[in-house]
Specification:
Layout (H helix, E strand, L loop, with lengths): L5 E5 L6 H18 L5 E5 L5 H7 L5 E5 L16 H6 L4 E4 L2 H6 L4 H13 L3 E6 L3 H5 L3 H12 L9 E5 L13 H19 L1 H6 L1 E5 L4 H8 L6 E4 L6 H10 L3
Parallel strand pairs: 1-2, 1-8, 2-3, 3-4, 4-5, 5-6, 6-7, 7-8
Bound molecules: phosphoenolpyruvate.
Phosphoenolpyruvate binds next to strand 8.
Length: 253
């Protein structure tokens, strides 16, 4: 079953109006220049840039996503953004459970799951992040940790059409360190097995599982050619048009 690769950029808390708009325009024109693309493209700017980036992407096959959302659609939640607010701004995706949210905001699997249900109800596709810390890896717990995160964070409403999983070893994010290709394939294959237990084989075989953690143009082909790797979630390298597009091109998009 062919799964269309997803090349997703997580801009995190980076970009003001001028540089965010320029980055989006650069990506839009490069994607247009590719013509018929084999992959799906997604950019997830900070909330403050969603409207400007939506405008800058006009006419290009690049989806827009938020980096988080609340599990309610409105109400007394100062500083939060709801799933409906994201769709209202033209988002079709939202990243949930990124390790930085789990660490900085104490987000649990249960909370991520609740957010995912709300996002699906609002019509958003979710990119649900999982991944082990270095201590967990050193203790040989990688697959256990990722399995628990899948079981706890992925809701029953998840299907291959509305959910993408991103495996991001915490110790590889923004560090320049990466697991070996063999390690990545082993985790992705294990994750797909757990997804099959939870959501059935049909959904599991069609669901995209991205790798994230220091993906750059020079290592993209190695990771994205693995049988169970269906794209990349890219942080630092998604902030430069050339790097983001080189990752896509080197991955056969
Ligand atoms: C990320 O934050 O999702 C990420 C993978 O970051 P980086 O590519 O910078 O490691």
């Amino acid at each position: 079953m062919a799964r269309k690769k997803l090349i997703a950029g997580n801009w995190k808390m980076n970009g003001l109006t001028a540089d965010g708009t320029a980055l989006a325009k650069g990506i839009a024109s490069e994607v247009k220049a590719l013509g018929k693309v084999q992959c799906e493209f997604l950019v997830c700017p900070p909330f403050t840039l969603l409207a400007a980036v939506k405008k800058a992407l006009r006419g290009a096959k690049v989806a827009l996503g938020g980096q988080d959302c609340h599990f309610e659609n409105k109400g007394a939640h100062t500083g939060d953004i709801s799933p409906l607010m994201l769709t209202d701004l033209g988002c079709s995706y939202v990243i949930l459970g990124h390790s930085e949210r789990r660490a900085d905001h104490g987000e649990s699997n249960e909370l991520v799951c609740k957010k995912a249900v709300a996002a699906h109800q609002a019509g958003l596709k979710t990119v649900i992040c999982i991944g082990e810390t270095l201590a967990q890896r050193d203790a040989g717990q990688t697959i256990d940790v990722c399995s628990r995160q899948i079981l706890g964070s992925v809701p029953e409403s998840a299907t291959s059409a509305n959910t993408v999983i991103a495996y991001e070893p915490v110790w590889a994010i923004g560090t320049g360190k990466t697991p070996t290709a063999q390690d990545v394939e082993e985790v992705h294959a294990a994750v797909r097995k757990v997804l099959a237990q939870k959501l059935g084989r049909g959904n599991a075989s069609k669901m995209r599982i991205l790798y994230g953690g220091s993906v750059k143009p020079s290592n993209a082909a190695e990771f994205l050619s693995l049988p169970d790797v269906d794209g990349a979630l890219i942080g630092g390298a998604s902030l430069k048009v050339e790097d983001f597009m080189a990752i896509a091109k080197n991955s056969g998009c």
